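task queued by scheduler; priority normal; single chain, no ligands, no partner chains; default sampling; output format set to C-alpha coordinates
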Amino acid sequence: MKLVLLSGGSGKRLWPLSNDARSKQFLKVLENQNGQLQSMVQRVWRQLGNVGLADSAVIATSKSQVDMIQSQLGQSVPIIIEPMRRDTFPAIALASAYLYSVEGIDVNEVVAVLPVDPYVEDRFFDRVKDLEETVLVSGADLALIGVEPTYPSAKYGYIVPTSQSSDGDYLRVSHFTEKPTEDKAAELIKQGALWNCGVFAFKLDYLISLLQEKGFPVQYDELVKQYDRLPKISFDYEVVEKTEHIVVLPYDGYWKDLGTWNTLTEEMATNQIGKGVVVESENTHLVNELDIPVAVLGVSNAIVAVSPDGVLVADKGKSPKIKELVNDFNQRPMYEERRWGWYRVLDYTRFEDGREVLTKRIGIAAGKNLSYQMHCYRSEVWTIIRGEGEFVLNGEIRPVKPGDVLEIPVGAKHGIKAMTDLELIEVQTGTPLIEEDIIRVYMSWDEVEQFCRYAR
Protein backbone atom coordinates (compact mmCIF):
# COMPACT_ATOMS: atom_id res chain seq x y z
CA MET A 1 0.00 0.00 0.00
CA LYS A 2 1.16 3.52 -0.82
CA LEU A 3 0.33 6.54 1.33
CA VAL A 4 -0.30 10.06 0.03
CA LEU A 5 -0.20 12.79 2.68
CA LEU A 6 -1.92 16.02 1.66
CA SER A 7 -0.16 19.17 2.85
CA GLY A 8 -2.05 22.36 2.02
CA GLY A 9 -3.86 25.14 3.80
CA SER A 10 -4.08 28.90 3.43
CA GLY A 11 -2.57 29.72 6.82
CA LYS A 12 -5.43 31.86 8.15
CA ARG A 13 -7.02 29.84 10.98
CA LEU A 14 -4.00 30.07 13.31
CA TRP A 15 -2.98 33.60 12.37
CA PRO A 16 -0.61 35.31 13.15
CA LEU A 17 1.69 32.29 13.52
CA SER A 18 0.38 30.69 10.34
CA ASN A 19 0.55 32.46 6.98
CA ASP A 20 0.54 31.58 3.27
CA ALA A 21 4.04 30.10 3.58
CA ARG A 22 3.62 28.43 6.99
CA SER A 23 0.31 26.61 7.40
CA LYS A 24 -0.85 25.19 10.73
CA GLN A 25 0.91 21.84 10.28
CA PHE A 26 4.32 23.54 10.49
CA LEU A 27 3.84 25.42 13.78
CA LYS A 28 6.22 24.06 16.44
CA VAL A 29 3.95 24.27 19.47
CA LEU A 30 3.58 20.60 20.43
CA GLU A 31 6.06 18.59 22.51
CA ASN A 32 7.75 15.35 21.48
CA GLN A 33 8.76 12.53 23.80
CA ASN A 34 11.99 14.37 24.66
CA GLY A 35 10.21 17.57 25.69
CA GLN A 36 11.29 19.42 22.52
CA LEU A 37 8.91 21.51 20.44
CA GLN A 38 7.66 19.85 17.29
CA SER A 39 5.12 20.59 14.57
CA MET A 40 2.09 18.52 13.57
CA VAL A 41 3.82 17.29 10.41
CA GLN A 42 6.90 16.22 12.39
CA ARG A 43 4.68 14.38 14.86
CA VAL A 44 2.77 12.52 12.12
CA TRP A 45 5.94 11.61 10.21
CA ARG A 46 7.45 10.13 13.40
CA GLN A 47 4.26 8.16 14.03
CA LEU A 48 4.32 6.75 10.50
CA GLY A 49 7.86 5.57 11.20
CA ASN A 50 6.70 3.96 14.46
CA VAL A 51 4.19 1.74 12.63
CA GLY A 52 6.35 1.06 9.56
CA LEU A 53 4.54 3.27 7.06
CA ALA A 54 7.05 6.09 6.45
CA ASP A 55 8.84 4.23 3.64
CA SER A 56 5.52 3.91 1.78
CA ALA A 57 4.54 7.58 2.15
CA VAL A 58 4.83 10.57 -0.17
CA ILE A 59 3.75 14.15 0.55
CA ALA A 60 1.71 16.09 -2.01
CA THR A 61 2.11 19.84 -1.59
CA SER A 62 2.46 23.19 -3.33
CA LYS A 63 5.77 24.78 -4.33
CA SER A 64 5.51 27.28 -1.49
CA GLN A 65 5.68 24.54 1.17
CA VAL A 66 8.58 22.46 -0.19
CA ASP A 67 11.31 24.32 1.72
CA MET A 68 9.31 24.16 4.95
CA ILE A 69 8.78 20.40 4.61
CA GLN A 70 12.44 19.77 3.86
CA SER A 71 13.47 21.99 6.75
CA GLN A 72 11.36 20.00 9.21
CA LEU A 73 11.55 16.47 7.80
CA GLY A 74 14.86 16.48 5.92
CA GLN A 75 16.00 16.76 2.31
CA SER A 76 15.22 13.14 1.43
CA VAL A 77 11.48 13.15 2.19
CA PRO A 78 9.57 12.21 -1.02
CA ILE A 79 7.48 15.11 -2.33
CA ILE A 80 5.04 15.54 -5.23
CA ILE A 81 4.90 19.24 -6.11
CA GLU A 82 1.69 20.80 -7.38
CA PRO A 83 2.35 23.59 -9.94
CA MET A 84 -0.30 25.70 -8.17
CA ARG A 85 -2.84 25.41 -5.35
CA ARG A 86 -6.14 24.10 -6.64
CA ASP A 87 -7.85 21.78 -4.10
CA THR A 88 -7.77 18.18 -2.96
CA PHE A 89 -9.12 16.55 -6.14
CA PRO A 90 -6.36 17.95 -8.40
CA ALA A 91 -3.74 17.16 -5.74
CA ILE A 92 -4.85 13.52 -5.43
CA ALA A 93 -5.17 13.17 -9.21
CA LEU A 94 -1.60 14.42 -9.70
CA ALA A 95 -0.28 12.13 -6.96
CA SER A 96 -2.04 9.15 -8.58
CA ALA A 97 -0.50 9.98 -11.97
CA TYR A 98 2.91 10.23 -10.29
CA LEU A 99 2.57 6.82 -8.61
CA TYR A 100 1.34 5.29 -11.88
CA SER A 101 3.73 6.75 -14.45
CA VAL A 102 6.85 7.74 -12.46
CA GLU A 103 7.03 5.12 -9.70
CA GLY A 104 5.42 2.46 -11.88
CA ILE A 105 2.99 1.27 -9.21
CA ASP A 106 0.66 -1.55 -10.30
CA VAL A 107 -2.90 -0.35 -10.93
CA ASN A 108 -4.21 -2.98 -8.50
CA GLU A 109 -2.17 -1.60 -5.60
CA VAL A 110 -4.10 0.23 -2.88
CA VAL A 111 -3.43 3.92 -2.27
CA ALA A 112 -4.44 5.56 1.02
CA VAL A 113 -4.84 9.33 1.29
CA LEU A 114 -4.81 11.26 4.55
CA PRO A 115 -4.17 14.79 5.86
CA VAL A 116 -0.64 15.52 6.99
CA ASP A 117 -1.76 16.84 10.39
CA PRO A 118 -4.23 14.62 12.33
CA TYR A 119 -3.67 14.61 16.10
CA VAL A 120 -3.99 10.92 16.91
CA GLU A 121 -2.44 7.98 18.73
CA ASP A 122 -0.08 5.62 16.89
CA ARG A 123 -2.79 2.98 16.66
CA PHE A 124 -4.76 5.25 14.33
CA PHE A 125 -2.12 4.48 11.71
CA ASP A 126 -2.47 0.78 12.42
CA ARG A 127 -6.10 1.31 11.39
CA VAL A 128 -4.87 3.03 8.22
CA LYS A 129 -2.98 -0.19 7.44
CA ASP A 130 -6.30 -2.08 7.61
CA LEU A 131 -7.61 -0.06 4.66
CA GLU A 132 -5.61 -2.16 2.21
CA GLU A 133 -7.34 -5.43 3.10
CA THR A 134 -10.70 -3.65 3.35
CA VAL A 135 -10.47 -2.37 -0.24
CA LEU A 136 -9.44 -5.79 -1.54
CA VAL A 137 -11.95 -7.86 0.45
CA SER A 138 -14.99 -5.58 0.14
CA GLY A 139 -14.61 -4.84 -3.56
CA ALA A 140 -15.59 -1.25 -2.79
CA ASP A 141 -14.41 1.66 -4.93
CA LEU A 142 -13.52 3.64 -1.80
CA ALA A 143 -12.82 2.65 1.80
CA LEU A 144 -12.91 5.35 4.49
CA ILE A 145 -12.00 5.61 8.15
CA GLY A 146 -14.72 7.01 10.41
CA VAL A 147 -14.04 8.10 13.98
CA GLU A 148 -16.57 7.07 16.62
CA PRO A 149 -17.84 10.43 17.95
CA THR A 150 -17.38 11.38 21.61
CA TYR A 151 -19.86 14.27 21.48
CA PRO A 152 -22.30 15.83 18.95
CA SER A 153 -19.96 18.24 17.18
CA ALA A 154 -21.20 20.76 14.64
CA LYS A 155 -17.65 21.27 13.31
CA TYR A 156 -17.17 17.91 11.58
CA GLY A 157 -18.72 16.04 8.69
CA TYR A 158 -20.47 12.72 9.36
CA ILE A 159 -20.40 9.36 7.58
CA VAL A 160 -23.74 7.62 7.92
CA PRO A 161 -23.53 3.84 7.42
CA THR A 162 -26.36 1.57 6.34
CA SER A 163 -28.26 -0.19 9.10
CA GLN A 164 -27.16 -3.62 7.93
CA SER A 165 -23.89 -4.92 9.34
CA SER A 166 -21.10 -6.25 7.18
CA ASP A 167 -19.44 -9.62 7.07
CA GLY A 168 -16.10 -7.97 7.79
CA ASP A 169 -14.76 -5.18 9.96
CA TYR A 170 -16.31 -2.56 7.71
CA LEU A 171 -19.76 -1.05 7.11
CA ARG A 172 -21.45 0.05 3.89
CA VAL A 173 -21.86 3.82 3.62
CA SER A 174 -25.36 5.20 3.12
CA HIS A 175 -24.65 8.93 2.80
CA PHE A 176 -22.75 11.91 4.19
CA THR A 177 -23.86 14.92 6.24
CA GLU A 178 -21.61 17.97 6.34
CA LYS A 179 -21.37 20.00 9.58
CA PRO A 180 -24.90 19.54 10.96
CA THR A 181 -26.35 21.38 13.95
CA GLU A 182 -25.57 19.85 17.34
CA ASP A 183 -29.13 18.51 17.62
CA LYS A 184 -28.89 16.91 14.19
CA ALA A 185 -25.45 15.55 15.08
CA ALA A 186 -26.89 13.89 18.18
CA GLU A 187 -29.52 12.18 16.00
CA LEU A 188 -26.87 11.02 13.54
CA ILE A 189 -24.77 9.55 16.35
CA LYS A 190 -27.80 7.50 17.48
CA GLN A 191 -27.92 6.13 13.92
CA GLY A 192 -24.28 5.03 14.21
CA ALA A 193 -22.80 7.91 12.24
CA LEU A 194 -19.03 8.47 12.38
CA TRP A 195 -16.87 11.58 12.12
CA ASN A 196 -15.32 11.97 8.69
CA CYS A 197 -11.58 12.39 9.31
CA GLY A 198 -10.64 12.75 5.65
CA VAL A 199 -8.89 9.37 5.31
CA PHE A 200 -9.76 7.05 2.44
CA ALA A 201 -8.27 4.42 0.16
CA PHE A 202 -8.80 3.06 -3.34
CA LYS A 203 -7.12 0.89 -5.94
CA LEU A 204 -4.86 3.05 -8.09
CA ASP A 205 -6.84 1.92 -11.13
CA TYR A 206 -9.94 3.71 -9.80
CA LEU A 207 -8.31 7.15 -10.07
CA ILE A 208 -6.39 6.42 -13.26
CA SER A 209 -9.59 5.26 -14.97
CA LEU A 210 -11.42 8.33 -13.68
CA LEU A 211 -8.81 10.65 -15.17
CA GLN A 212 -9.04 8.83 -18.51
CA GLU A 213 -12.84 9.12 -18.49
CA LYS A 214 -12.54 12.87 -17.92
CA GLY A 215 -10.09 13.23 -20.80
CA PHE A 216 -7.00 14.03 -18.74
CA PRO A 217 -3.55 12.52 -19.28
CA VAL A 218 -2.39 9.89 -16.79
CA GLN A 219 1.31 10.55 -17.45
CA TYR A 220 2.62 12.76 -14.66
CA ASP A 221 4.63 15.15 -16.87
CA GLU A 222 1.66 15.76 -19.14
CA LEU A 223 -0.78 16.23 -16.26
CA VAL A 224 1.55 18.82 -14.72
CA LYS A 225 1.33 20.83 -17.97
CA GLN A 226 -2.48 20.63 -17.92
CA TYR A 227 -2.88 21.05 -14.17
CA ASP A 228 -4.78 24.32 -14.52
CA ARG A 229 -7.45 22.45 -16.51
CA LEU A 230 -8.33 20.16 -13.60
CA PRO A 231 -11.46 21.34 -11.78
CA LYS A 232 -10.69 23.34 -8.66
CA ILE A 233 -12.82 21.22 -6.34
CA SER A 234 -12.46 18.98 -3.33
CA PHE A 235 -12.09 15.21 -3.70
CA ASP A 236 -15.21 14.81 -1.55
CA TYR A 237 -17.40 16.73 -4.00
CA GLU A 238 -15.79 15.52 -7.22
CA VAL A 239 -15.36 11.83 -6.37
CA VAL A 240 -16.65 10.64 -2.99
CA GLU A 241 -20.21 11.95 -3.28
CA LYS A 242 -20.49 10.49 -6.81
CA THR A 243 -19.22 7.03 -5.84
CA GLU A 244 -21.85 4.40 -5.08
CA HIS A 245 -19.89 1.54 -3.48
CA ILE A 246 -18.17 2.97 -0.40
CA VAL A 247 -17.35 1.24 2.88
CA VAL A 248 -16.07 2.65 6.17
CA LEU A 249 -13.82 1.28 8.89
CA PRO A 250 -14.82 2.50 12.37
CA TYR A 251 -12.02 3.79 14.62
CA ASP A 252 -12.70 4.04 18.37
CA GLY A 253 -9.52 5.82 19.47
CA TYR A 254 -8.46 9.42 20.06
CA TRP A 255 -8.67 11.79 17.07
CA LYS A 256 -8.65 15.57 16.93
CA ASP A 257 -8.43 18.30 14.33
CA LEU A 258 -6.15 21.01 15.74
CA GLY A 259 -7.50 23.62 13.37
CA THR A 260 -8.29 26.49 15.75
CA TRP A 261 -6.50 28.10 18.66
CA ASN A 262 -8.91 26.65 21.22
CA THR A 263 -8.35 23.05 20.05
CA LEU A 264 -4.60 23.52 19.54
CA THR A 265 -3.96 24.95 22.99
CA GLU A 266 -5.76 21.98 24.56
CA GLU A 267 -2.89 19.79 23.36
CA MET A 268 0.01 22.12 24.18
CA ALA A 269 2.11 20.88 27.12
CA THR A 270 2.82 24.41 28.35
CA ASN A 271 0.79 27.61 28.52
CA GLN A 272 3.72 29.77 27.42
CA ILE A 273 6.14 29.62 24.50
CA GLY A 274 8.57 32.49 24.05
CA LYS A 275 9.51 35.56 26.06
CA GLY A 276 6.99 36.98 28.55
CA VAL A 277 4.83 36.27 31.59
CA VAL A 278 1.24 35.09 32.16
CA VAL A 279 -0.09 35.84 35.66
CA GLU A 280 -3.49 35.79 37.38
CA SER A 281 -4.95 34.33 34.19
CA GLU A 282 -6.71 30.96 33.98
CA ASN A 283 -6.65 28.81 30.84
CA THR A 284 -4.71 31.46 28.92
CA HIS A 285 -1.90 30.64 26.50
CA LEU A 286 0.90 32.90 25.24
CA VAL A 287 2.89 32.08 22.09
CA ASN A 288 5.49 34.75 21.33
CA GLU A 289 7.93 34.51 18.40
CA LEU A 290 9.46 37.96 18.85
CA ASP A 291 12.45 38.94 20.97
CA ILE A 292 10.44 41.45 23.02
CA PRO A 293 8.62 40.38 26.21
CA VAL A 294 4.83 40.14 26.34
CA ALA A 295 3.00 40.46 29.69
CA VAL A 296 -0.50 39.02 30.18
CA LEU A 297 -2.21 40.00 33.44
CA GLY A 298 -5.69 38.98 34.58
CA VAL A 299 -6.96 37.77 31.20
CA SER A 300 -8.55 34.31 31.34
CA ASN A 301 -9.62 31.83 28.63
CA ALA A 302 -7.59 33.69 26.01
CA ILE A 303 -4.95 33.10 23.38
CA VAL A 304 -2.23 35.72 22.93
CA ALA A 305 -0.14 35.02 19.83
CA VAL A 306 2.66 37.31 18.64
CA SER A 307 4.72 36.91 15.46
CA PRO A 308 6.29 39.08 12.75
CA ASP A 309 2.96 38.81 10.91
CA GLY A 310 0.86 40.40 13.66
CA VAL A 311 -0.55 40.24 17.19
CA LEU A 312 -3.66 38.35 18.24
CA VAL A 313 -5.53 38.66 21.54
CA ALA A 314 -8.69 36.55 21.47
CA ASP A 315 -11.15 34.71 23.63
CA LYS A 316 -10.53 31.03 22.93
CA GLY A 317 -14.21 30.37 22.33
CA LYS A 318 -14.21 33.00 19.56
CA SER A 319 -11.00 31.77 17.91
CA PRO A 320 -12.78 29.80 15.10
CA LYS A 321 -13.82 33.21 13.69
CA ILE A 322 -10.23 34.37 13.19
CA LYS A 323 -10.01 33.17 9.58
CA GLU A 324 -12.90 35.38 8.43
CA LEU A 325 -11.59 38.25 10.55
CA VAL A 326 -8.14 38.35 8.88
CA ASN A 327 -9.16 37.08 5.44
CA ASP A 328 -8.73 40.54 3.90
CA PHE A 329 -5.29 41.10 5.41
CA ASN A 330 -3.07 41.30 2.33
CA GLN A 331 0.61 41.28 3.21
CA ARG A 332 3.57 39.13 2.33
CA PRO A 333 4.58 36.44 4.88
CA MET A 334 6.91 38.08 7.41
CA TYR A 335 8.46 34.79 8.56
CA GLU A 336 9.38 31.70 6.56
CA GLU A 337 11.34 28.52 7.15
CA ARG A 338 13.57 27.35 4.33
CA ARG A 339 15.62 24.21 3.64
CA TRP A 340 18.70 26.07 4.94
CA GLY A 341 17.14 27.84 7.93
CA TRP A 342 14.73 30.78 8.22
CA TYR A 343 14.22 34.48 7.59
CA ARG A 344 12.22 37.22 9.29
CA VAL A 345 11.21 40.51 7.66
CA LEU A 346 12.26 43.42 9.89
CA ASP A 347 11.18 46.40 7.79
CA TYR A 348 9.79 47.35 4.39
CA THR A 349 9.70 50.84 2.86
CA ARG A 350 8.44 52.03 -0.52
CA PHE A 351 9.49 55.54 -1.57
CA GLU A 352 7.53 57.99 -3.74
CA ASP A 353 9.89 57.43 -6.69
CA GLY A 354 9.06 53.70 -6.63
CA ARG A 355 12.26 52.47 -4.99
CA GLU A 356 11.81 49.77 -2.36
CA VAL A 357 13.95 48.77 0.62
CA LEU A 358 13.40 45.45 2.43
CA THR A 359 15.33 44.42 5.53
CA LYS A 360 15.52 40.79 6.70
CA ARG A 361 17.20 38.87 9.48
CA ILE A 362 18.37 35.55 8.05
CA GLY A 363 19.44 32.44 9.96
CA ILE A 364 21.43 29.67 8.24
CA ALA A 365 21.99 26.37 10.05
CA ALA A 366 25.53 25.04 10.40
CA GLY A 367 26.53 23.08 7.30
CA LYS A 368 23.75 24.55 5.16
CA ASN A 369 24.12 27.07 2.32
CA LEU A 370 22.17 29.53 0.24
CA SER A 371 22.33 28.68 -3.45
CA TYR A 372 24.88 30.38 -5.70
CA GLN A 373 22.46 32.85 -7.26
CA MET A 374 21.88 36.25 -8.84
CA HIS A 375 19.09 38.85 -8.91
CA CYS A 376 17.95 40.95 -11.86
CA TYR A 377 16.22 43.80 -10.00
CA ARG A 378 17.84 44.24 -6.61
CA SER A 379 21.15 44.87 -4.92
CA GLU A 380 21.86 43.55 -1.42
CA VAL A 381 24.03 44.40 1.55
CA TRP A 382 24.72 41.61 4.05
CA THR A 383 26.04 42.27 7.55
CA ILE A 384 27.19 39.16 9.43
CA ILE A 385 26.02 39.38 13.05
CA ARG A 386 26.62 35.84 14.31
CA GLY A 387 28.65 32.77 13.36
CA GLU A 388 31.25 32.05 10.72
CA GLY A 389 30.99 30.94 7.13
CA GLU A 390 32.23 31.13 3.56
CA PHE A 391 30.98 33.78 1.11
CA VAL A 392 31.29 33.58 -2.67
CA LEU A 393 30.97 36.60 -4.99
CA ASN A 394 31.42 36.31 -8.75
CA GLY A 395 33.49 33.15 -8.51
CA GLU A 396 35.70 34.07 -5.53
CA ILE A 397 35.27 32.40 -2.12
CA ARG A 398 36.42 33.95 1.15
CA PRO A 399 35.76 33.44 4.88
CA VAL A 400 33.32 35.72 6.76
CA LYS A 401 32.79 36.49 10.45
CA PRO A 402 30.64 38.78 12.65
CA GLY A 403 31.02 42.44 11.66
CA ASP A 404 31.80 41.77 7.99
CA VAL A 405 29.74 43.86 5.54
CA LEU A 406 29.21 42.30 2.10
CA GLU A 407 27.97 44.36 -0.88
CA ILE A 408 26.21 42.51 -3.70
CA PRO A 409 25.42 44.56 -6.83
CA VAL A 410 22.50 43.82 -9.16
CA GLY A 411 23.38 40.82 -11.34
CA ALA A 412 26.30 39.66 -9.20
CA LYS A 413 26.54 35.92 -8.55
CA HIS A 414 26.73 35.18 -4.84
CA GLY A 415 26.09 32.65 -2.09
CA ILE A 416 27.07 31.75 1.46
CA LYS A 417 27.67 28.63 3.55
CA ALA A 418 27.40 28.54 7.34
CA MET A 419 30.31 26.76 9.05
CA THR A 420 28.58 27.37 12.39
CA ASP A 421 25.00 28.59 12.94
CA LEU A 422 25.11 31.95 11.14
CA GLU A 423 22.87 35.01 11.14
CA LEU A 424 23.02 38.09 8.94
CA ILE A 425 21.04 41.24 8.27
CA GLU A 426 20.11 41.60 4.60
CA VAL A 427 19.06 44.96 3.12
CA GLN A 428 17.55 44.69 -0.35
CA THR A 429 17.21 47.77 -2.58
CA GLY A 430 15.45 47.89 -5.96
CA THR A 431 12.09 47.23 -7.55
CA PRO A 432 10.23 44.98 -7.62
CA LEU A 433 11.39 43.26 -4.43
CA ILE A 434 9.92 39.81 -4.87
CA GLU A 435 11.08 36.32 -3.84
CA GLU A 436 10.80 35.18 -7.47
CA ASP A 437 13.66 37.52 -8.52
CA ILE A 438 16.27 34.80 -8.30
CA ILE A 439 18.34 32.84 -10.81
CA ARG A 440 20.06 29.85 -9.20
CA VAL A 441 23.41 28.83 -10.71
CA TYR A 442 24.45 26.07 -8.27
CA MET A 443 22.44 24.58 -5.42
CA SER A 444 25.19 22.70 -3.54
CA TRP A 445 28.38 24.07 -2.00
CA ASP A 446 30.32 21.19 -3.61
CA GLU A 447 29.49 22.76 -7.00
CA VAL A 448 30.60 26.18 -5.73
CA GLU A 449 33.96 24.75 -4.62
CA GLN A 450 34.33 22.91 -7.94
CA PHE A 451 33.69 25.87 -10.21
CA CYS A 452 34.81 28.82 -8.05
CA ARG A 453 38.18 29.64 -6.45
CA TYR A 454 39.31 30.58 -2.96
CA ALA A 455 40.72 34.08 -2.51
CA ARG A 456 44.43 34.28 -1.70
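post-processing summary
- Residues 47 and 122 are 6 Å apart (CA to CA).
- The mean pLDDT is 93.
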